[in-house]
Specification:
The chain has four helices and 18 strands. By secondary structure, the chain is mostly beta strands. The chain has one domain: Metallo-beta-lactamase, Chain A (4-Layer Sandwich), CATH 3.60.15. Strand 10 and strand 11 form a beta hairpin. The longest helix has 8 residues.
C-alpha cells in the first residue's frame, strides 16, 4: 500500500506511507486479563507480517487488550511510542525490558514519515487519544478514551480537515461490570445497552468502530440472562457517514477495512476467520 490505513483486531490501526509505518495497540497473540479475554477472530498472516514491518508502535494505555506483552515481544525492533502519562510507569517498565521507548510530547505533531504525522493527547485517567494525519486526512483514534477536557481541542482540529475518520470504543458493554440486580433479583440493564452505535452519532464525518472484536473466552455464569454476547459470527463493520446535505446515506464498509489514497471509500482486506 502506497498511502493509506487499515484496521484489524481489537483496537489496531495500521498506517502506510510507501510501506507500513505505524501500528497502534497491537494485540495479535495471546489472551488478556489472565486468559478471560481472547480475540474473537484470528488476525490474518498478512496483517501480522505488516505489523512486524512497521517502524513505530503506539500504546494508548496499560490495559492488556491494548498493551499486550505477548504481542509486543514479537515487535522488539519497533520504536514504542507512549503518551506522556503521569508517573511514566509504562515508559519505565518497557525500557527495563529492553524496548526502545519514545514519549510523545502532548499536543505537538510528530513526523513519522514524509506523509504521516501524529499528535498524542493523554488525560487524567491514564488514557490517551492519537490524532494521525495520513496524507492530509485525519484519523481520530479515541480507543477507550472519554472526553476529559480534550474534546473542544480535538473538534477544532477535525474542522480543519475535509476528511476525517473516527475510531472509538463500540460495543454492548459486556466488557464492563454488568452483573447488577435489584433486591428482588431483577437484572439492571447496563447503561451501554442504550447507547447509539458510533456510526450514527458522527454526522458529517466518517466513523469506524474500534475495540469491538474481543470477547470473553468463556461465558460468564448467571442466574438470569447471559452476561456476555460471545464472539460474533462476523467481525464488526465500519460504519461511514457523510454530511447531512449529502444525498448518500450512511453505509457499512466490509470487515477488516482498508483505505488507500486517492480513494475515499472503504475496501476490504482478507477477512479474519472467526474463532
Amino acid at each position: 500500500m502506497e498511502l493509506g490505513f487499515e484496521t484489524i483486531g481489537n483496537a489496531t490501526l495500521i498506517c502506510h506511507d510507501n510501506g507500513p509505518v505505524l501500528v497502534t495497540d497491537p494485540w495479535t497473540h495471546g489472551a488478556a486479563y489472565f486468559g478471560s479475554w481472547t480475540l474473537s477472530h484470528d488476525i490474518p498472516e498478512e496483517q501480522r507480517d505488516t505489523i512486524q514491518r512497521c517502524q513505530y508502535a503506539w500504546l494508548s494505555h496499560g490495559h492488556p487488550d491494548h498493551l499486550s506483552p505477548e504481542s509486543l515481544e514479537k515487535l522488539r525492533e519497533l520504536t514504542i511510542l507512549v503518551p506522556n502519562h503521569f508517573g511514566g510507569r509504562i515508559r519505565d517498565d518497557l525500557r527495563e525490558q529492553g524496548f526502545n521507548v519514545h514519549v510523545l510530547v502532548d499536543r505537538v505533531w510528530t513526523q513519522l514519515s514524509p506523509r504521516i504525522r501524529v499528535m498524542c493527547i493523554p488525560d487524567m485517567n491514564q488514557d490517551a487519544v492519537l490524532l494521525v494525519d495520513v496524507g492530509g486526512r485525519l484519523l481520530v483514534n479515541l480507543n477507550d478514551a472519554g472526553d476529559r477536557g480534550w474534546g473542544r481541542f480535538v473538534r477544532g482540529l477535525v474542522r480543519r480537515y475535509d476528511q476525517s475518520y473516527l475510531l472509538a470504543l463500540s460495543g454492548y458493554g459486556d466488557a464492563d461490570m454488568i452483573n447488577y440486580f435489584t433486591e428482588d433479583g431483577q437484572r439492571i440493564a447496563p447503561y451501554a445497552a442504550a447507547k447509539t452505535p458510533v456510526g450514527r452519532t458522527s454526522p458529517g464525518r466518517r466513523s469506524s468502530t474500534a475495540r469491538a472484536t474481543s470477547c470473553p473466552s468463556a461465558p460468564c455464569t448467571s442466574t438470569s440472562a447471559p452476561t456476555a454476547s460471545g464472539p460474533p459470527s462476523t467481525p464488526p463493520r465500519w460504519r461511514t457517514t457523510r454530511a447531512a446535505s449529502s444525498p448518500r446515506r450512511a453505509r457499512s464498509c466490509p470487515p477488516s477495512s482498508r483505505w488507500t489514497s486517492p480513494r475515499t471509500t472503504c475496501g476490504s482486506s482478507a477477512p479474519p476467520s472467526a474463532r
